Amino acid sequence: MSNNNIAVKVDHVSKYFKLPTESTHSLRTAMVNRFRGIKGYKEQHVLRDIHFDVEKGDFFGIVGRNGSGKSTLLKIISQIYVPEKGTVTVNGKLVSFIELGVGFNPELTGRENVYMNGAMLGFTTEEVDAMYDDIVEFAELKEFMNQKLKNYSSGMQVRLAFSVAIKAEGDILILDEVLAVGDEAFQRKCNDYFLERKNSGKTTILVTHDMAAVKKYCNKAVLIEDGLVKAIGDPDDVANQYSFDNAVPVETTDNKEDDEEEKQEVLKVDNLEVKLLSKSPMTPKETIMFDISYDVLDDIETHIVFSLTDIDRNIWIYNDNAWDIPTQGSGHKKYRYTCSIPNVNDLKLKLQVTILGKSKEMLAFANTANAPLVVINRDDIPLDDLSALDSASGIIQRNGKWDILSV
C-alpha cells in the first residue's frame, strides 16, 4: 500500500503516565528513597504497542470501554500528547474535536469565538471567512453571533463548537463522543452530515460507544482493550465484539500482577456456525434456507437473532428476532430456517446471526468470515423495463419458519 494513500499512520505507539504512590516534603527523604530504588510513583500503561493505518477517505471507528485508552490515543494523534514509544504520522490538515467547547472564551462573542477557534485549528482569517457562513448556518445561530458566549445556553454552545469542527475544511476530522450533541432536530442534521461525509471521500476518525453508529457510518474500526488492539477491520465484527465483551460475565482471580487483577471472560455459548443451504445466486421464486448450530456451555436460555443486510447500501432488508424457539438448557443446538423472498430486485445480502441471552445480552455472534452471502437475481422482468424494475424493490416478507434439528 502506497504511503500516499495513508491519512494517519499509528506506528507501534505506547503511552504511560506516572502516578505518585507517596508524597514527601523532605529533600532528605526523597534522596534516600531514590538511592533505595523507590521511585515514589508507578507507571500506568495506557497504550501498549498500538498499530494501524487510516487510509484517505476512511470513516474509521475507535471503540472500547471507559479507560481503555481511546481518548489518550486521539490526543496523541492530535499531537496533544507525545508517546513514549512509536510514532504517529498525519498526512493533511487535521481538525480535532475531542472535548466540547475547548478553546472557547465566554467573554467573547460567538463570531469572535469562531475566528479564535479557527486560528487555533491552524486556519487563516481568509479561510475562516470562507467557512463562516456555513458554520453559522449549520449551528442555526445567525441572530446570536454578536452576543457573548456566556449568554448562550449550553445547547447553543455545543451546537456552535460542533459546527466549527465539522464545517472547518480540514483533510482529517477527529470526533470524540459527539453523536449525542444538541437536541433531536440537531442530531438529525448531524446524522445527515455524517452520511454525506461518509460518501465525500474525506477522512474521519470517530470514537464512540454507540455500536449502531459504528455499523452505520464506519467502513473500518478498531477495538481497544486495556491499551491493546483486540479487534480491527470490519466494523460489524468490531462492534459485535465490543457488544459481546460487555455482555459476557467477567471473573476475577486472586492472582495479582502489577497491582492489577487478572480478568477472565466466561463463555456461555461457543462454536456458532452458520451454513447456507440454498444455492447462490438465486431468484425471488426460490427460498432461502440455512442452518444455525451452536453449543451452550451452561444451563441458560438462548435466542437466535438474524438479519439480511444489503451489502451495497448497508441497510437491513430483513430482521428476525426468534423469541419463540425453545432453547432452554445446555448442550448442542441446531436449527434450520426457511423463508421466501418475493418482491425484491437484484441484491447482494449478508446473513448475520447473533445469539442472545434471556435479557437480550449478546452471548455469541457470527463474524464476517462466518456470514454467508446470498445473491438474488430477478429473472422475470426485462432489463429495459425500468418502471417495473423500480416498482419491484420491496422487502423480504416475514414468512419464515424454524425447524428444530437438534436440542
TrEMBL record:
Keyword DNA-binding: no
Keyword Disulfide bond attributed: no
EC identifiers of the protein: 3.6.3.40
Key words, A-Z: ATP-binding, Hydrolase, Nucleotide-binding, Transport
Molecular function GO terms recorded: ABC-type transporter activity; ATP binding; ATP hydrolysis activity
Domain ABC transporter span(s) in chain numbering: 27-251
Spans traversing the lipid bilayer: none
Protein family per UniProt: Belongs to the ABC transporter superfamily.
Name this protein carries in UniProt: ABC transporter ATP-binding protein
Annotated PANTHER family: TEICHOIC ACIDS EXPORT ATP-BINDING PROTEIN TAGH (PTHR46743)
Entry's Gene Ontology cellular component terms: membrane
Enzyme class: hydrolase
InterPro entries per UniProt: AAA+_ATPase (IPR003593), ABC_transporter-like_ATP-bd (IPR003439), ABC_transporter-like_CS (IPR017871), ABC_transpr_TagH-like (IPR015860), Bact_Polysacc_Export_ATP-bd (IPR050683), P-loop_NTPase (IPR027417)
